Amino acid sequence: MSWIPLPVGIENYAELIEKGYYYIDKTLLIKDLIDLKGKVNLFTRPRRFGKTLNLSMLRYFFEKSDVNPAPLFEGTKIWDAGHPYTDQMGQYPVITLSLKSLKQTDFKSAFYCLREEIAREFDRHASLVSSLESRDKQEKYNRFVEQKAAPEEYLTSLRFLSDCLYASSQTRCIILIDEYDVPLENAYFHGFYPEMLSLIRSVFESALKTNDTLEFAVVTGCLRISKESIFTGLNNLSMISIMDQSYAEHFGFTQEEVDQMLRDYQLEDRREDIRKWYDGYCFGNTIESLIAGGTIIKPVHEDITYADIDTSQDYLWNFLFFTGYLKKRKQYQENGEIYMELAIPNMEVRHIYKHTVLLWFEEKIKMKDLSELYRSILDGDRKKLSEFLSEFPVGSSASTKSGLLISARQIATLCFSPPESSYGFFLSRCSI
């Protein structure tokens, strides 16, 4: 195979295909969504597991537009699946909304950013305005495009756009929402959580609950936040977390896919290195052998909320598990509660995140306010995390101040660097 560039940082499916980047085919996600017929599908996965790229793929496949989507999918697995699936290509109006940029330090700024995101999506469909039956609806639509809508109008903005798209096309729409939990996470750490929660809940409820103009929706994020009642009343909601087997092969890489990539780049001799550094994330019922190190057994709560973070040390382990810093080895149920045997997923993480760090968490921060710890991890603030960790002795480094700082910096590096890496990053450093 001639050398093909790796799509490091590419999140747009059309760009990836048209520019000839290497692509690991995940198009059978489309088939499963069609076959399983979930009305509202919530996928929770760690960062860098392809959530945004998959949503982009769904948009280009399903969206009705003047551009024929077929060239983007010819030769893919969904193309080979045949007419029951390819006949649905380009047949639906699609609403897509990314919330990953809502990381402002106050509610006013975050709401302004959300208004901009919504305005862009209304503007993307602006050609339908002339087809709206009333002048009032046309004027309301234009207010969203110009960011002049009243604050309360934004609470039902996606539902209004969905209704407009249906009126124009007589076809129910597909709604794709990426990183739904980012604004909630950010708001929690900056002190305006109740306001953001109320806003996001209203936007979601109006668009996803009893919406007759909705074909189906796909929502992605890192954490499942059900206690917040964001999805109140959605009895047709399918929550697919890293604890579920369904859809597991559509996010991240399977062993077969990694082996094929290594063959394509003539790096088969690096298979064991790749496995040690990057393997270890197990979804569903799959149980893989540990690369190395010990385990801990903790209760797992899928409905962890940001408001719960400071209430129990167990939520620290839940937080690390659902964001990809721990993997499941075993699972069992006892007294109605789910327990998992958790381990460090691979050598990339284990390189700095040694088992002594786990013991440190267990013994040293039982009564510590963890809000600064979580915030520094999520904000990528290595300096702040180092300062937080330096307050406690860690293993053999406890005898000197410099030892404390070194250990703290190592743990900080763990929390930011590994999950941001990828096979692409590793392969780009190899001689090909």
The N- to C-terminal Cα distance equals 11 Å
The proportion of residues forming helix, as a percent range, comes to 40-55%
- What structural category arises from helix and sheet content? alpha/beta
| Quantity of strands, as a count | 8
How do the strands line up in the largest sheet? Answer: 2-3-4-1-5
Low-confidence stretches: 283-292, 392-432
State the domain count.
2
The portion of residues forming beta strands comes to: 5-15%
Radius of gyration: 23 Å
Mean pLDDT: 78
Biggest sheet descriptor: 5 strands, parallel
Order of helices and strands: HHEHHHHEHHHEHHEEHHEHEEHHHHHH
What's the tally of helices? 20
**Overall 3D form:** globular
Q: Please, could you describe this protein's structure?
A:
By secondary structure, this protein is of the alpha/beta class. It has two domains: 13-250; 255-424, no CATH class. It is built from 20 helices and eight strands. It has helices at 13-18, 28-36, 51-62, 70-73, 77-80, 83-86, 107-124, 135-145, 157-169, 182-190, 193-208, 255-264, 271-278, 314-322, 347-350, 355-364, 371-379, 382-389, 401-420, 423-428; strands at 40-44, 94-98, 173-178, 214-221, 237-240, 295-299, 327-334, 337-343. It has a five-stranded parallel sheet with strand order 2-3-4-1-5, sandwiched between helices. It has a three-stranded antiparallel sheet with strand order 6-8-7, covered by helices on one side. A hairpin with a 2-residue loop joins strand 7 (327-334) and strand 8 (337-343). Helix 9 runs parallel beside helix 11, helix 10 (182-190) runs antiparallel to helix 11 (193-208) and helix 18 packs across helix 19 (401-420). The longest helix has 20 residues, at 401-420. The protein is globular. The protein starts with 12 loop residues before the first helix and ends with a helix. The model is unreliable at 283-292 and 392-432 (pLDDT under 50).
